[in-house]
């Protein structure tokens, strides 16, 4: 079952949603990484310290439509894992840990394909195929350790959107980035 991710920015002073639908979509890997119920595979998200629950300003901004507790512990109708962080804290975390960058071992062909064509090594199903360590049967002469940048990383997308909004004076660094999920 798919889980949609919803992100908005809320003005902490006026309690109004400033940027609605900053992110409104699906990405199962990113969901695992930013969900407070599950921890994903990317350890940089262990250093993202958001607050869990509904910030009071978000509750007010949404006429309390999300705070109804269902018997199963979810909020509203299928909404769950409300999380928020100060915009500046998210930006600082992003710049320190760069979740859009990763490194590992790839074959010399995959390294060439990335350098020449900007094609990330994948397993054929869209998952990155980059080894963190070589297996004992791998031929070391056929492998290169290198750094990659994922231009489609969701955190990078949010980081850029937040910087643009700050630059355009749509939001302030002390506003709140709020996210939650539904099915």
Highlighted features:
183 residues, alpha+beta, 2 domains, 5-stranded antiparallel sheet, two-stranded antiparallel sheet, 5 helices
Describe the structure.
The chain has helices at 28-34, 56-61, 87-97, 108-117, 154-167; strands at residues 4-10, 17-25, 51-52, 80-86, 101-107, 143-149, 176-182. By secondary structure, it is of the alpha+beta class. The protein has two domains: 4-99 and 153-182, no CATH class; 101-149, no CATH class. The strands form two sheets. It has a five-stranded antiparallel sheet. The chain has a two-stranded antiparallel sheet with strand order 5-6. A hairpin with a 6-residue loop joins β1 (4-10) and β2. α3 (87-97) packs across α5. The longest helix is centred in the C-terminal third of the chain and has 14 residues, at 154-167. The mean pLDDT is 83.
């Amino acid at each position: 079952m798919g889980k949609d991710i919803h992100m908005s920015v809320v003005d902490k002073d006026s309690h109004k949603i400033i940027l609605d639908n900053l992110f409104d979509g699906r990405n199962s890997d990113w969901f695992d990484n930013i969900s407070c119920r599950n921890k994903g595979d990317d350890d940089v998200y262990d250093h993202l310290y958001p607050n869990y629950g509904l910030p009071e300003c978000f509750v007010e901004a949404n006429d309390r439509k999300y705070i109804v507790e269902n018997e199963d512990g979810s909020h509203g109708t299928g909404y769950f894992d409300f999380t928020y962080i100060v915009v500046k804290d998210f930006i600082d975390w992003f710049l320190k840990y760069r979740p859009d960058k990763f490194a590992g071992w790839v074959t010399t062909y995959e390294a060439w394909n990335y350098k020449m064509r900007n094609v990330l090594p994948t397993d054929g199903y869209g998952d990155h195929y980059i080894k963190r360590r070589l297996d004992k049967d791998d031929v070391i002469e056929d492998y290169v350790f290198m750094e990659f940048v994922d231009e489609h990383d969701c955190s990078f997308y949010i980081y850029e959107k937040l910087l643009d909004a700050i630059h355009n004076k749509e939001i302030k660094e002390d506003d709140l980035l709020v996210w939650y999920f539904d099915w």
